[in-house]
Every structure is written in structure tokens, then in C-alpha cells.
Amino acid sequence: MTGSYWKKSKHKFIGITIAASLTACAVKPTTISQLQTNQNNNETQAANVTANKEKIQAKAPLKSEKTDNNLVFYVHNKYQGKIVYQGKPANQEKVIALTIDDGPWEPTTSQMLDILKENNVKATFFWVGKAVKQNPEIAKRVVAEGHAIGNHTWNHPYKRMSPTTAKSEIEKTADIIYKTTGVKTSLFRPPGGYLNNGLAAYAKSQKYAVVMWSQTSADTDPRAKPQVFVKNVLRDAKPGGIVLMHDGGGDRSRTVTALPKMIAGLKQQGYRFVTVPELLSN
Questions:
Q1: Is 101 one of the annotated active-site residues of the chain?
Q2: 251 has catalytic annotation
Q3: Which CATH architecture group holds 64-279?
Q4: Which entry of 76, 101, 147, 152 is annotated as an active-site residue?
Q5: pTM for this prediction
Q6: 203-218, pLDDT tens digit by residue?
């Protein structure tokens, strides 16, 4: 059987060779001019491919994407290493970002998540590292429900610190966020909005966007009532606005009470809710 197989294959091979030769002979000879034209076309195509490749590589990263099954929150490269107070939406589109600091914190974070889910709103949570360590399950829920995450240091310090301490505050928090949820983020918010204590300088050196805010609910005022938080947010709303509120660091039940009215009022004004990575994606 082996001899018969090779014999047939040999005949088949000879037939293919003859057919190929006949086909090749039937092709009209190519002139030198045509060869040069083809070469020029090939060079032009190669140049176009290279240009397109460079254009793709230069394109800003996506607002979020999966890398090795981990979620990464990006901002446009023009915001990397910069201090940001608000976005600049095209044509002054009425988009606004709710940001929520100092958690995860129970029961407040869960209550706010319920409200956000009910209203189909995504927010951006700036987490304190030690709070993530204490509340890993609620941290996982925040990510699972599609909200964006930012770094808010490990201990929430205000005082000036050494570069080594600043690095530890941010990197330790980045590490616990990643180990708990698989998230990496290029967003950083300095506690209290302090920009001169060493934290913002380190964050900028690592290409974090240092995200401040354009308006605050003032929900850390111990005397203010929930309706004041709502009034503050609705009064100061602007396209590309970044709203500050809190779910941790103390009793935030007044913020929970105010949140549904904030959302309803902003929707009535024609605002659409986006996360900070979406706001800073272009």
C-alpha cells in the first residue's frame, strides 16, 4: 500500500508542476516600468500601514478596559500628571460626574449603591486603603455594579509628609484595591483637597490625574441639613462638573437622604451622569 501511495502522489505532483508551468507561460511579461510602478505602490501601502499604526498607538487609551482580566481605569493622556477640576465636554454637553469619597463604608456605601442602581447612575468612588481592607465585599460590589474607582490614600492624611511616606500612602492603597477587586486606576484625589503636602506631587510623578472637584455638596458640614446638600449641587451644576460627596469617614446618613433628590434634580435640569474616566476620556 505504501508503494502505491507514493506512486500516485508522484504522478499528481508532476501534473501540478506542468499545469503551473503552462499557467506561468501564459502570463504577459512585466515591463521594467510596471515593476517600478508596483514597487512604488508597495512602498506607498507600507507607508500608509506605518502611519495608521502610529495613529492607533498615539490614540488615547480607553476610559476603561480589561487587561489580563483586570479592569483598568484610564484618562486621556492630556490629563495624566495634571490637576483636574472639571471636564470639558464637546459642545458643552450637559454631563456631570458624581464622586464619592472615603469609603467603602457600611452601611452607607450599600445604601448609596442601591440608590444609584435604582436610578441607573454610575459614580466614581475614591477609596481609602484601610477602608477597602476592612470592607472587601462591599468594595467588590461597587466594582461589579459598574462604578469607577480612584485612589484616596491609605490613612487619609492632611499633614505634609516625606516623599517616601507619600509613595507608601498611594502605592499601598493601589495594592489593596488591586488585590481586592482586580482594579487598577489612574485617578487620585488628595484628602481634603490638599495639594501641597507631598501626595499630589507623587501622584503627578506617576501620571495619575489628580482629580479635584468643581462643586461640593458640603456634606461634611455637621450642621447642614440634607436639603442644603441638594441645593448646593443643583445651584452649582455645570457641563463637565465634578461633584464632591462622601460615603465614609463618619455618619453619612444625611448624604444618603439627599442623594435621590440630587439625582432627580440634575436629571430635571437635563444632565446625564458619567464616571470621571468617561468625563476625561477626550
A1: yes
A2: no
A3: Alpha-Beta Barrel (3.20)
A4: 101
A5: 0.77
A6: 999 999 999 999 999 9
